[in-house]
């Protein structure tokens, strides 16, 4: 089967954004990230992404703002790599990839990430606590508002544990399977 969209889903700190950007560049495809959109919305509201996730449970307008892009994708008919925990659900004909990671490794990664301007933590323990809280909120939110269990790995074409892999190695695995 030929795919024109690859969706990269997975756990916080698993390398979704890094891998998706790298893959888009290797394939010369467009790149889109709902994480960027979510962080921008949180920043505009002067809150963290955890607080935005908490508000989204009772405020469906937040989801509509973030996920509305899938109704009229900005990439149009072009091929695209989409970095989003729920894109596999909204784009069922995509090649669906899920990235997993050990939570301690994830905490180290997000602590050293320069692009996470809306999350404020200075120690690995703070990052770990933040990731656990955000994951719990997202699981509940996605189950309630979308009836989607993002931990059901049978929904994906490919599942990769990135804990001991470089982004280049992850991209290679995706390209091989694709």
Features:
178 residues; alpha/beta; Rossmann fold; five-stranded parallel beta sheet; 8 helices
Could you please describe the fold and organization of this structure?
This protein starts with a strand and ends with a helix. It has a five-stranded parallel beta sheet. By secondary structure, it is α/β, with parallel strands linked by helices. The chain is globular, with a radius of gyration of 15 Å. α3 (49-58) crosses α4 and α3 runs parallel beside α7. The protein has a single domain (5-177), classed as 3-Layer(aba) Sandwich (Rossmann fold), CATH 3.40.50. Helices cover 51% and strands 13% of the residues. It has helices at 16-27, 34-45, 49-58, 60-67, 87-90, 103-112, 124-146, 167-177; strands at residues 5-10, 30-33, 80-83, 95-100, 158-161.
Concise structural overview:
This protein is an alpha/beta fold and 178 residues long. It has one domain: Rossmann fold.
Please outline the helices and strands.
Blueprint: E1 5-10, H1 16-27, E2 30-33, H2 34-45, H3 49-58, H4 60-67, E3 80-83, H5 87-90, E4 95-100, H6 103-112, H7 124-146, E5 158-161, H8 167-177
Parallel strand pairs: 1-3, 1-4, 2-3, 4-5
Helix pairs in contact: 1-8, 3-4, 3-7, 6-7
Radius of gyration: 15 Å
Shape: globular
Classify the fold: give the CATH topology.
Answer: Rossmann fold
Task: Give the beta-strand count.
Answer: 5
Low-confidence region ranges: none
Q: Strand order of the main beta sheet, please?
A: 2-3-1-4-5
* Beta strand %: 5-15%
Number of helices: 8
Fourth-tier CATH superfamily name = P-loop containing nucleotide triphosphate hydrolases
């Amino acid at each position: 089967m030929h795919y024109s969209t690859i969706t990269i889903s997975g756990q916080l700190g698993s390398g979704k954004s890094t891998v998706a950007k790298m893959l888009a560049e290797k394939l010369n495809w467009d790149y889109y990230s709902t994480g960027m959109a979510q962080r921008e919305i949180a920043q505009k509201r002067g809150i963290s992404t955890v607080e935005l996730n908490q508000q989204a449970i009772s405020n469906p307008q937040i989801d509509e703002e973030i996920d509305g892009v899938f109704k009229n994708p900005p990439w149009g008919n072009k091929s695209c790599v989409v970095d989003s925990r729920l894109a596999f659900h909204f784009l069922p004909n995509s090649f669906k990839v899920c990235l997993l990671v050990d939570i301690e490794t994830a905490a180290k990664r997000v602590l050293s990430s320069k692009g996470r301007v809306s999350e404020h933590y200075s120690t690995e323990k703070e990052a770990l606590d933040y990731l656990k809280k955000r994951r719990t909120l997202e699981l509940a939110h996605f189950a309630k508002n979308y009836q989607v269990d993002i931990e059901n790995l049978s929904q994906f074409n490919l599942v990769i544990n990135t804990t001991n892999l470089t982004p280049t190695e992850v991209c290679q695995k995706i390209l091989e399977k694709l």
